[in-house]
Design a protein that fits this description.
The complex is a heterodimer. Chain A contains 5 helices and 7 strands. By secondary structure, chain A is an alpha+beta fold. Chain A has 2 domains: 3-86, Helix Hairpins, CATH 1.10.287; 93-219, Heat Shock Protein 90 (2-Layer Sandwich), CATH 3.30.565.10. Chain A is globular and about 70 Å long. In chain B, 47% of the residues lie in helices and 19% in strands. A 5-stranded parallel beta sheet of chain B has the order 2-1-3-4-5, with helices on both faces. The longest helix of chain B is centred in the last third of the chain and has 23 residues, at 111-133. The chains are: A alpha+beta, B alpha/beta. The interface between A and B is medium-sized, with 27 and 18 residues.
Chain lengths: 225, 134
């Protein structure tokens, strides 16, 4: 199969995964919306009761509040998942680095929590919008963070700082903590140079004096062919 | 003062009926429809709502097409789109200006946010009606 056809097939495969995830996250939101309305109606009816009419009203209020809190968390998860899935709609688009990376970081936070690694981020406020491949950028960042999560012992820290450097955006991933043998040795990191080349992005890695590793990605707009 | 007439259009029957009941408890006169055809029939029968809460994704005629139909029939009816769609409302520039919704609310929505937007939409409709009388 010709390389161009293979790339097209891969793009369509990604779009297909994206469409399925988008469809399901939309469906989840519908269920959450119904649960939220039913819970809200329960609260409304409880408020209409005369004081003292129900012996369990305080308990009901606590349950309603607990359900609302969970709906809020699940909705946020769906929002990020839905945004993530739509990144695959178009290979190239104008994108906000902050939105694209926050989405990715939010979705990886669950895995960081499981491994008891602190995953934090900081974004400059004046980051420019760039024209590039949002889904591929998310994959590039995944290729840095996922192996780091696999390597770090619990108590480790991954810090992502994103800043404007003239016409570029600089993404610095700092990996701090004791390292161990990874559970999953899929060579995600090996993909990184090729992925970044496709994004027209630069890469540098260095070990600081304190032993922390710094991975620096510089990215800007790409010309559409 | 007469009650604000709201029409909820959503193919999720439980969602539409529960939301309508909650809005009625808050003093609105709310009707629920579960397909766009019924909603249009209701509007054509001169049961003109002040504000319509319209789901974006529905079978057969979707929310965008329905919005255009409503605006063509009576541009003073204000429409608030309800959507669980992460990509937002696919309307741009002139199209949004001419046939666009008053606002768009993400599902699951907060009832306070919804009632605030309904009241704002009603105020806009009232202004448009008064302007027409002058």
């Amino acid at each position: 199969m010709k390389a161009q056809k293979k790339d097209r097939l891969r793009e369509m495969q990604l779009a297909f995964v994206g469409k399925l995830i988008a469809g399901f996250s939309h469906e989840f939101k519908n269920h959450l919306a119904i649960i939220k309305e039913l819970n809200g109606l329960f609260e409304d009816l409880l408020l209409l009761e005369e004081p003292g009419q129900s012996t369990n009203s305080e308990r009901y209020k606590k349950i309603i509040s607990g359900i609302n809190e969970r709906i809020g968390q699940a909705s946020e998860m769906c929002r990020f998942l839905s945004g993530f899935s739509h990144r695959m709609d178009q290979p190239l688009s104008s994108l906000s680095i902050t939105d694209v990376l926050q989405e990715k970081i939010y979705l990886l936070r669950r895995f960081a929590r499981q491994k008891q690694v602190d995953l934090t981020s900081s974004f400059d406020e004046d980051l420019p919008a760039i024209f590039n491949n949002p889904s591929l950028l998310q994959f590039a960042i995944f290729c840095i963070i996922w192996p780091a999560l696999e390597l770090l012992e619990q108590g480790g820290r991954i810090l992502i700082t994103v800043a404007r450097k003239q016409e570029y955006v600089e993404i610095i991933v700092t990996i701090e903590g004791t390292k161990k043998k990874p559970d999953d040795d899929t060579p995600w990191g090996d993909m990184l140079p090729e992925v970044l080349q496709m994004l027209g992005a630069g890469l540098s890695r260095r070990i600081e004096q304190d032993g922390n590793e710094k991975v620096v990605v510089t990215i800007s707009s790409i010309e559409s062919s | 003062m007469s009650k604000v007439k709201v029409l909820v259009v959503d193919d999720e029957i439980e969602f539409a009926t529960t939301l309508a009941e909650r809005l009625n408890l808050r003093g609105y006169e709310t009707t629920a429809c579960f397909c766009t055809e019924d909603a249009m029939a209701l509007i054509h029968a001169k049961n003109i709502p002040d504000v319509i809460l319209l789901d974006l994704k529905m079978p057969r005629m979707d929310g965008i097409e329905t919005l255009e139909e409503i605006k063509k029939y009576n541009p003073t009816i204000e429409v608030i789109m309800l959507t669980g769609h992460g990509g937002g409302i696919p309307l741009t520039g002139a199209h949004r200006e001419k046939h666009g919704p008053f606002d768009c609310v993400m599902k699951p929505a907060d009832i306070k946010e919804l009632t605030t937007k309904i009241n704002q939409a009603m105020a806009k409709r009232q202004t448009a009606i008064n302007r027409g009388k002058d």
